[in-house]
Amino acid sequence: MIEEAELKKFLYMAKLSTYSSGKMSKRHANYLKEYKFNKDSLSYRDIYYGSLIDAGFEVVCFEKLPIWSMAYRGGMTSCLVESKICFSFLKKALENSEISFPVRGPKLFEADNFSYRNLFKGSIFDFVGNELILYNNEPVYLKKYIGGIITHYDCSELTHECNSVELF
C-alpha cells in the first residue's frame, strides 16, 4: 500500500500539475471536464461538471486500485467580482497548497483585495472542509468538500488510524 507521506507528496504534485497550473481541462461531449496526472504506480483523476458552480470528484489510484477520493461542490456566490478574476485568484491560492494537507489551498492566502480561507477538520485519511473567498471582505465564492482513504478489504489491513470527523 502507500504511506501517508508518499500520498501527500503525490497529491501535492498532482494538484500543482492540473487545475492550479492553468492548463486547460480535457472537455468531453457530455460537458464533463477532466484532469489527469500519473507518476510511477500512482494516478490522479479530477472530473467535474459546471463552471461558475461546479460539482466534481477526485480519485487517486495505486496500481489501478482506487485508494483515496474527494467529492466537492460549490463556486461563485456573488457577482461583486468577475468570475474570471475570482478563479484566477483561486488558482494562485491553490498553488500555495501546503504539503501537510494538499487537498485544497492553504489555511489562509491573501492578495490584492482577495482573501482565501480553507477551513477543514480531519486528516488526509478522513476529512471535511469548506473553502471561502472574500473580495473586499465580502464572500464571493464557497466550495464544500469531503474525502479520505478508500478501503477495499478488512480493517486489519489499514496502516493508519481513521479519525472520525464532525461536520460543522
- Helix tally? 2
The best one-word shape is globular
How are the strands ordered across the major sheet? 1-2-3-4-5-9-8-7-6
Total number of beta strands? 9
Q: Span from first to last CA?
A: 31 Å
Give the rounded overall mean pLDDT.
90
Helix and strand run: HEEEEEHEEEE
Derived from helix and strand composition plus strand pairing, the structural class reads alpha+beta
Q: Give Rg in angstroms.
A: 16 Å
Proportion in helices: 10-25%
Strand content: over 45%
- Count of all domains: 1
The low-confidence runs, each spanning 5 or more residues with pLDDT under 50, are: 161-168
Report the major sheet: 9 strands, antiparallel
Essential attributes:
single chain; 168 residues; alpha+beta; nine-stranded antiparallel beta sheet; 2 helices; 9 strands; 45% strand; disordered C terminus
List the helices and strands and how they pair.
Elements: H1 4-17, E1 26-27, E2 33-39, E3 42-50, E4 53-62, E5 65-76, H2 83-95, E6 108-111, E7 114-123, E8 126-135, E9 138-149
Antiparallel strand pairs: 1-2, 2-3, 3-4, 4-5, 5-9, 6-7, 7-8, 8-9
Describe this entry's structure for a reader.
With 168 residues, this protein is of the alpha+beta class. It has one domain (4-157). Helices cover 16% and strands 45% of the residues. It is built from two helices and nine strands. A nine-stranded antiparallel beta sheet has the order 1-2-3-4-5-9-8-7-6. A hairpin with a 2-residue loop joins strand 2 (33-39) and strand 3 (42-50). The longest helix has 14 residues, at 4-17. It is globular, with a radius of gyration of 16 Å.
